Amino acid sequence: MTRVAILISGSGSNMVRLVEALRVPDSPAVPALVLSNVPGVAGLVKAAALGVPATTVDHRRFAKDRAAFEAAVDRALRESHADLLCLAGFMRILTAGFVERWAGRILNIHPSLLPKYRGLDTHARVLAAGDPEHGCTVHLVTPELDDGPILGQAKLTVRVEDTPETLAARVQALEHRLYPTVLARYLAGEKAPLLLC
Ligand code: GRF
């Protein structure tokens, strides 16, 4: 049984979809832990309501000592006996050292059609560029930011009336379909990229 830890920083709506996907009959995996780097976020309340163990490692307590923060995260993950990590709106950059310790075992969801628009403010950047399409990507995490082999993408057509806010909502609805689907495929050993339209 694969034990999946889900790392969040906020509302945790993707986390809820992942937990639900892991709890289907005959699932090969279970949710082991929800870890937030921000205390008191809505995602922690949702994890408690779902009965998933949840913990907080507040990055601000470590000031600029990223290695100490990551050591505390790593300790919590290992105490939960996690085998696989899903970053779901986790807004901290992980160092190469951390990523290498979990090599091939970290998935992330990013709100753009990678390799376009790594980093932040993807929706505004899509609109500024006048792109006809946008979407989200689930990929394996490598030390480069928002890089790594793509496991799945979901696309939408940008509308003339779209704003960064409407695009954020439309992309998030796609994320909620894509991430659980890709996770289930990944657990079944499928690594060929999936395209949801
Ligand atoms: C998602 O849209 C993700 O792409 C972005 O942050 C958001 C997290 O939302 N990086 P939630 O916490 O899963 O609700």
List keywords for this structure.
binds 5-O-phosphono-beta-D-ribofuranosylamine; 8 strands; 8-stranded mixed beta sheet; alpha/beta; 6 helices
Q: Ligands bound here?
A: 5-O-phosphono-beta-D-ribofuranosylamine
How many extended strands? 8
Distance between the termini: 31 Å
With strands numbered from the N-terminus, the spatial order across the biggest sheet is 3-2-1-4-5-6-7-8
The shape is: globular
Please state roughly what percent of the residues sit in beta strands, choosing from under 5%, 5-15%, 15-25%, 25-35%, 35-45% or over 45%.
15-25%
Q: Element order, helices and strands?
A: EHEHEHEHEHEEHE
Structural class: alpha/beta
Radius of gyration (CA) equals 16 Å
Uncertain parts: none
Number of helices: 6
Binned, the helix content reads: 25-40%
Largest sheet: 8 strands, mixed
Task: Report the average pLDDT across residues.
Answer: 97
Compose a concise summary of this entry.
The chain is α/β, with parallel strands linked by helices and 197 residues long. It has helices at 13-22, 42-50, 66-79, 96-101, 122-129, 164-187, and strands spanning 2-8, 29-36, 54-56, 84-87, 106-110, 133-140, 150-157, 194-196.
How is this structure best described in words?
The protein is of the alpha/beta class and 197 residues long. 36% of the residues lie in helices and 23% in strands. It contains 6 helices and 8 strands. Strands 3-2-1-4-5-6-7-8 form an 8-stranded mixed sheet, with helices on both faces. Helix 4 links the parallel strand 4 and strand 5. Helix 1 runs parallel beside helix 2, helix 1 runs parallel beside helix 6 and helix 5 crosses helix 6. The model has no long low-confidence stretch (mean pLDDT 97). The protein binds 5-O-phosphono-beta-D-ribofuranosylamine.
